[in-house]
């Protein structure tokens, strides 16, 4: 299977899963599962490869997808019922879960113990959304990314997520904003190693905030489909 065929197969799995998702979250509006935009799942389908090492905080459709795509995946979620539903769903649909691991502890407890683990290819942050938990997930989870690895944040419309991205990550050129909508954003890491550092390494953080219009324009730009952005980008 060549690269194009591999992406096509992963996109087919996205379609199948969105049509019949696992009932992980009975409190969700559809009484089945909380989810992000279809485009986010399609983005990840294009970026990952079988054997990639992936991590997420939270669990749901993304957990099944990353498992079905052949990733070595860890889901950090402190709700045993959610892991049981996902494992049952995978079993019923013939999805191999031998490379899937659940850590059934809060992410602020589980992630610090992963320091020194193998580098990751993709991290999906979609666990607790109250301050400061998304930042903790980024610090420990995205800190394990290899150079060129990707971190995806869901629910960026929520203050504890969006404010952190706008005030810090968007201003740090070690994180390249590569895709997203008003619901999610993806960044490619341009460095590697621990995210712990001296404040002198963050001169961008001391400067003035970009004006509101500039942040709004940037959000609109990154909400456009990738193909449209390529057509509009100066040659």
Q: How many structural domains in the coordinates?
A: 1
What quaternary form is this? single chain
Number of helices: 10
**H/E element order:** HHEHEHEHEHEHEEHHH
Do you know the CATH topology? Answer: Rossmann fold
Strand order of the largest sheet: 3-2-1-4-5-7-6
> What share of the residues lie within helices?
25-40%
Estimated radius of gyration? 18 Å
CATH class reads Alpha Beta
Distance between the termini: 33 Å
- Uncertain spans: none
Describe the main β-sheet briefly.
7 strands, mixed
Averaged pLDDT:
90
CA-based shape: globular
Class computed from helices, strands and strand pairing: alpha/beta
Named at the architecture level, the CATH assignment is: 3-Layer(aba) Sandwich
Residue share in β-strands: 15-25%
Task: Please provide the count of β strands.
Answer: 7
**Superfamily at the CATH H level?**
Vaccinia Virus protein VP39
Keywords:
single chain; 235 residues; alpha/beta; Rossmann fold; 40% helix; globular
Write a structural description.
The chain is α/β, with parallel strands linked by helices and 235 residues long. It has one domain: Vaccinia Virus protein VP39 (Rossmann fold), CATH 3.40.50.150. It contains ten helices and seven strands. Strands 3-2-1-4-5-7-6 form a seven-stranded mixed β-sheet, sandwiched between helices. A hairpin with a 3-residue loop joins strand 6 and strand 7. Helix 1 packs antiparallel against helix 2 and helix 1 runs antiparallel to helix 3. The longest helix is centred in the first third of the chain and has 17 residues. It is globular and about 55 Å long. The model has no long low-confidence stretch (mean pLDDT 90).
């Amino acid at each position: 299977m060549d690269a194009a065929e591999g992406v096509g197969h992963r996109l087919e799995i996205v379609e199948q899963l969105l049509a019949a998702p696992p009932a992980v979250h009975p409190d969700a509006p559809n009484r089945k599962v909380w989810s992000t935009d279809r485009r986010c799942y399609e983005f990840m389908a294009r970026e990952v490869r079988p054997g990639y090492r992936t991590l997420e905080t939270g669990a749901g459709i993304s957990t099944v997808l990353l498992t079905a795509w052949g990733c070595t995946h860890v889901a950090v979620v402190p709700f045993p019922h959610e892991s049981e539903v996902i494992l049952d769903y995978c079993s019923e649909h013939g999805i191999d879960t031998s490379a899937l691991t659940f850590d059934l502890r809060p992410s602020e407890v589980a992630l610090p113990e992963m320091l020194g683990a193998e580098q990751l290819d993709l991290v999906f942050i979609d666990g607790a959304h109250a301050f400061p938990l998304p930042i903790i997930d980024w610090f420990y989870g995205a800190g394990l990314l290899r150079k060129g690895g990707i971190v995806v944040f869901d629910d960026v419309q929520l203050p504890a997520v969006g404010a952190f991205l706008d005030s810090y990550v968007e201003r740090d050129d070690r994180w390249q904003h590569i895709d997203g909508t008003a619901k999610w954003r993806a960044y490619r890491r341009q460095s590697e190693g621990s995210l712990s550092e001296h404040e002198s390494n963050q001169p961008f953080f001391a400067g003035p905030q970009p004006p509101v219009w500039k942040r709004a324009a940037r959000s609109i730009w990154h909400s456009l489909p990738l193909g449209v952005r390529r057509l509009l980008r100066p040659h």
